[in-house]
Amino acid sequence: MVTNVPMLDLKAQYRTIRDEVRSAIDEVCEAQYFILGPKVEAFERSVAAYSGARFAVGVSSGTDALLAALMALDVRPGDEVITSPFTFFATGGVIHRLNAKPVFVDIDPATFNIDPAKIEAAVTPRTKAIIPVHLFGQMADMDPIMTLSRRLGIPVIEDGAQSIGAEYKGRRCGSIGDLGCFSFFPSKNLGAFGDAGMILTNDQALYDKLKLLRVHGAPSTYFHKIVGGNFRIDALQAAVLDVKLKHLDAWSDGRKKNADYYDRAFAAAGLTGRGAIKTPTPVYRASGDRHYHIYNQYTIQAENRDKLQAHLKAASIGCAVYYPIPLHLQECFAPLGYAPGAFPAAEKAAGAVLSLPVYPELTDEMKDYVVAKIIEFYA
Ligand SMILES: *Cc1c(COP(=O)(O)O)cnc(C)c1O
């Protein structure tokens, strides 16, 4: 009998790929080639092909992917960058670190992603980039965002940290904007054995610049053309990730199956019908898209969220609030001058969201236990 369900169980995943991963690690150990080199190049080619982008640059983390992407676009002090307030902190943090100003735009409550209709009003002559975040595994509404971007001449960086492999009208995450960023933090759908990230682009000039930025701006040793950083991905991580990438679509299918299972169970119990909870809303389906939502998180909106969370925790069910405080209300961004009420949809989401375990190795018995405990709470 199931009596606990963790939020994520990386050991269960590792058991299924142990031998493959360990032989890839062994190859790196035998070659003693740790910095860039063949393993990194192979993984970059794999992710570019998988995502439908021309170029890929492996970097040290998702955060560094976003930071290097902004540097590649020459974002400078005083510039403004538009993004969503309902995201992981890194999206806003990297803007501030370049002494640029994050300018937030409210979300579409159905998808939790930036509302394209509200972006233009936030544009000023200082706007240097727009960063839509593809939150929880579903892409932002990219068509209107790209139309606006091209009309105003403002480049787009996709924050695809949670959405590698997600599809929007037949195109994959990271391949639509001028730049696309991934995180391979262990809890993302494609997780490294540590920190790692990647930047995609279809633009040769941006690709060349990113490769320079990754190695302190040096085209050859000790000749520094521009100021960059150490943004390199480890060859060991690239080797592990290249093995795991082959399984990613099957894992995404597993997450989708689990999400569908929850959707059906909550509807059958009448919980969605009477508004106790709202299940995720996949919006941008196109025929043939298999992964219009890859469920990095299965995030419900719940009446009495905090008490439900306590109830689930007491039943040893892992669950989490992503994210309790939108970026515009974070203490470190107080100088930006946003007040509560500035972004009602983001604030409402922050007060209602709860992410449930959805990782592919969940059994039906585990999902049934989660569902039963939620039904029990609202009974
Ligand atoms: C995880 C994440 C990042 C940062 O990635 P790291 O690899 O942890 O640095 C950025 N944006 C979003 C939306 C994320 O979920």
Plain-language structure description:
Helix content is 37%, strand content 12%. With 379 residues, the protein is of the alpha/beta class. It has 2 domains: 229 residues, Type I PLP-dependent aspartate aminotransferase-like (Major domain) (Aspartate Aminotransferase, domain 2, 3-Layer(aba) Sandwich), CATH 3.40.640; 131 residues, Alpha-Beta Complex (Aspartate Aminotransferase, domain 1), CATH 3.90.1150. The strands form 4 sheets. The chain has a 4-stranded mixed beta sheet with strand order 1-9-8-5, sandwiched between helices. The protein has a 3-stranded parallel beta sheet with strand order 3-2-4, with helices on one face. A 3-stranded antiparallel beta sheet has the order 10-11-12. Helix 2 runs parallel beside helix 7 and helix 3 crosses helix 4. The relative contact order is 0.17. The mean pLDDT is 97. The site of pyridoxal-5'-phosphate has 15 residues, from helix 3 and helix 4.
